Amino acid sequence: MAKPLLPDDLWAEAEQLLPPPKPRRFRFPGRKLLDNRKALTGILFVLKTGIPWEDLPQEMGCGSGMTGWRRLRDWHQAGVWDRRVEILLARLQHADRIDWSRAAIDSAMARALGGVEGSGPNPTERGRPVVKHHVVVDGQGTPLVVDRTAANVPDVNHLLGMVASIPPVRGKPGRPRQRPEELYADRGYDADPHRQKLRQRAIEPFIGRRETDHGSGLGVFRWVAERALSWLHGFRKLRLVTEKTEVMQYAFLNLAHVIILWRILQLPFC
Q: Which domain CATH number covers 216?
């Protein structure tokens, strides 16, 4: 049998943070609102398959695509996924499943169709519009922060901002943890001023240098970032970006981040 799109335990966690529906009027109550679980199931189906909203199968009982679009927008703007990421990271930290001894950063391109906001010309693909997804992971590959930029934004320009965006991770007594001890990156992030600023934050940088032979050995530690990006692009809605607004692109990206963290929590830990 196919795996359920929204397992019971995942729904039990998500349900706690979803804003309650507006109360219906006594007179002229109008059409009954779609159940939140059905709406989230339809949203996950769109995220996984990448189909247009208007093609959401009515046989699934998840309402119309426009209903799912509105719910996802409203939940994202209410900060639902950001709070869920914070909770999941805290649970991983409590279970000693976040490796702060090192982190890795990387990015990957995603083709953008039409005139989506925040896309940029990719010089390696004859200027086609492309969105770039960024990720910072811990030493085991758990994504700590995800983001997106236009394709023509150099990776090095986004390095310090990504590191600063790592959220304070609670889950243990004392101050929340936010900084890894080391950071690994490829030569696309090469910049001595950035190395200096990372050291000022007590983070030792291991960044490949341009115009040097390949084979630095840093890939032994960086491959977990590439794997995290492949997890993100396993959701077809992220692999081929069709959402016109940056708000909805972030909504899907943050929801995918939640799903990945939840899956990591389900894995056995030795």
A: 3.30.420.10
SS (H, E, C) 114-133: CCCCCCEEEHHHCCEEEEEE
Q: Which of 161, 206, 166, 211 is nearest to 184 (CA)?
A: 206
Spatial contact of 6 and 41, defined as CB atoms under 8 Å apart: yes
| Per-residue confidence (pLDDT) for residue 250, from 0 to 100 | 97
Residues 16-45 have pLDDT tens digits of 888 877 766 666 566 677 889 999 999 999
Render pLDDT for 231-242 as a digit per residue (tens, 0 to 9).
999 999 999 999
Task: For the beta carbon of residue 161, count every other beta carbon within 10 angstroms.
Answer: 12
State the Cα–Cα distance between residues 260 and 45, nearest whole angstrom: 15
In a domain, 255, yes or no: yes
Q: Which one, of 199, 189, 89, 84, lies nearest residue 140 by Cα?
A: 89
Residue segments in the chain with a per-residue pLDDT below the cut of 70: 1-2, 23-31, 215-216, 269-270
CB-based contacts of 211, cutoff 8 Å, min separation 6: none
- Best CA proximity match to 252, nearest among 264, 263, 242, 266: 242
The domain of 240 spans 80-266
Q: Rounded to whole angstroms, how far apart are CA atoms 91 and 172? A: 9
- How far apart are the C-alpha atoms of 62 and 120, rounded to whole Å? 34
257 vs 104: CA distance, rounded Å? 16
Strand, coil or helix: 90: helix
Tokens 């939840």 sit on residue: 262
User: 143, 260 in Cβ contact below 8 A?
Assistant: yes
